[in-house]
Design goal:
Blueprint lengths: L1 E6 L1 E2 L5 H13 L6 E3 L14 H4 L6 H13 L2 E10 L12 E8 L5 E6 L10 H4 L8 E4 L12 E5 L8 H9 L4 E5 L7 H15 L2 E5 L2 E4 L2 E2 L5 E3 L5 E4 L5 E6 L2 H10 L18
Parallel strand pairs: 1-3, 2-11, 3-4, 8-9, 9-10
Antiparallel strand pairs: 1-15, 4-5, 5-6, 7-8, 10-13, 11-12, 13-14
Helix pairs in contact: 1-3
Amino acid sequence: MRASLIQIAVDPDESVNSRRQRAAALVREQRGADLVVLPELWPVGAFAYQSYAEEAESLDGPTYDVMAKAASDAGVWLHAGSIVEKAAGSGSAEGSSTLYNTSLILSPAGELVSTYRKIHRFGFDEGEAVMMGAGDELVIVPLPGTVAGTGAGTGFTLGLATCYDLRFPELFRGLVDAGAQAFVVPAGWPARRREHWTLLARARAVENQAYVLACGTAGTHAGVEQAGHSIVVDPWGEVLAEAGPDEEVLTVELDPAKVATTREQFPALKDRRLGLADPRRDC
């Protein structure tokens, strides 16, 4: 399976509508890929908290409209990154729990086939943590077994996570138990914690023996410099591709069979021990 990660730059002087059109053009350029991935909250900027309410949209709003056409034109499965979702019937005031950080997954026909609301909100009682509601569902997306233009290949099951989720390994264990072979992690990760980004991406791959496709942004979000350095890691923890700090597209070939092979050759997941008693306290 061929996957392309679009590490788009967020420029505060570029309008949201202009960035949508530019992202759509980049998606169309990936024709021939099977899966294309965009970052977290790229329309508005992950740290542009003051714009969340104004730029909130429904699942079938302007970002979906533009991305659906781009996915259809390119003939790709598209993880369109995430948007500030305004839930049906909700208000848009700051602090409303009816705003969500929601990822959109579109088919090559441009149909919205899945969504994922970010479970772990970042901010430590500020920003996203208080302005958005928390998702409460693990989401996997089984892709059909075709390689673009050939009709060949095997299926691939994606597990969905977003940015700060990367710090919570239990989420990824749940996705593995549900059948995930690869994790797609769009992000707006700050440059000052870039080393954590690459370390955690590799750790999630190694401990779950799964691919990790972690797609971040370049540029700045409300003055917060972004890490860039989108990364693709294989089930053995080897880095297949890594971007630099600027806008860039990574394209890699993924082998679904490598997940099964890794898990068979080094069957660590079989040694998990669940349901242990509470810790003993000796003093």
